[in-house]
Design brief:
Layout (H helix, E strand, L loop, with lengths): L2 H22 L9 H23 L9 H20 L11 H11 L2 H9 L6
């Protein structure tokens, strides 16, 4: 399997996980649920953004088919929406994957990326 196929397979796996997480989500009774929020970043949004960074840097420079790119961006946004919901903030995240990747490269911290994009929590 070539590198592009391996990346694309990983994208679909992340996309399916994001869909399952959205379907299973129950809002916290008393926000913030910081541990849950961080889990969505560490296990979801972070790996999605990192996959993009990995594919676009170094030896790979892989361009994804449009449907795979949209699936990866949607998965990232789904997890960012769940992250915000864990703080009691309703939002429909719609951020560019490329922007999130640039922020991750600059900050090297997925929580900083989430805070900069979503402005959640408000005091961040």
């Amino acid at each position: 399997m070539d590198a592009k196929a391996r990346f694309t397979e990983r994208i679909w796996d992340l996309s399916e996980r994001a869909e399952r997480d959205v379907q299973a989500f129950e809002p916290p009774e008393s926000p913030p649920a910081e541990d849950r929020a961080m889990n969505y970043l560490r296990e979801g949004a972070g790996p999605a953004i990192s996959l993009f960074v990995e594919a676009r840097t170094g030896q790979h420079m892989i361009r994804f088919p449009p449907d795979a790119y949209r699936a990866l961006e949607t998965a990232m946004n789904d997890w960012l929406t769940l992250y915000a919901a864990c703080y009691g903030v309703e939002m429909e995240a719609d951020f560019a994957l490329r922007k999130a990747a640039e922020l991750l490269i600059d900050t090297r911290n997925i929580k900083d990326v989430a805070e900069l994009l979503t402005r959640v929590p408000e005091d961040a």
